[in-house]
Structure formats: C-alpha cells, structure tokens
Amino acid sequence: xxxxxxxxxxxxxxxxxxxxxxxxxxxxxxxxxxxxxxxxxxxxxxxxxxxxxxxxxxxxxxxxxxxxxxx
Length: 71
What we know:
With 71 residues, the chain is an alpha+beta fold. The protein has one domain (3-70). Helices cover 18% and strands 39% of the residues. It is built from 1 helix and 6 strands, in the order βαβββββ. The protein has one helix at residues 15-27; strands at 3-9, 32-38, 43-48, 56-59, 61-62, 69-70. The strands form 2 sheets. The protein has a 4-stranded antiparallel beta sheet, with helices on one face. Strand 5 and strand 6 (69-70) form a beta hairpin. The longest helix has 13 residues, at 15-27. The relative contact order is 0.32. The mean pLDDT is 81.
C-alpha cells in the first residue's frame, strides 16, 4: 500500500500535550504508521497509509542507513 506524509503546524506544544496528541491520532485508527515532530521548527509530520490531510507527499523512496530503497 502507498505511504504518505502530511505536514502540520505544531506551534509551541509542551511535551505532555504532544504525547496526548499522539495517543489521540493513533487511537483514531486511520492507518497512521509514525509521527515525528520538531520543536524548533514547530512542525509535525505524520506517516500514514490512508488519511485525507490538506498537504500530502507520496513517499516513493526512503533511506534509513544511507542506502536508497524504492517503496
């Protein structure tokens, strides 16, 4: 199944509130695979298999060890 990334403004969200947000997103059961966030950049990325966000990037390639893999 195709994977996608959605990007969301995070703002100044304290760690406990971010933990609650993660639990809420995963509890929705919308095919979410992973959530990553940057406090300095104030951005939240959600990797999922099926969802309808406003900004979507299909993931065709990835590298987790320096070697490129096609998905």
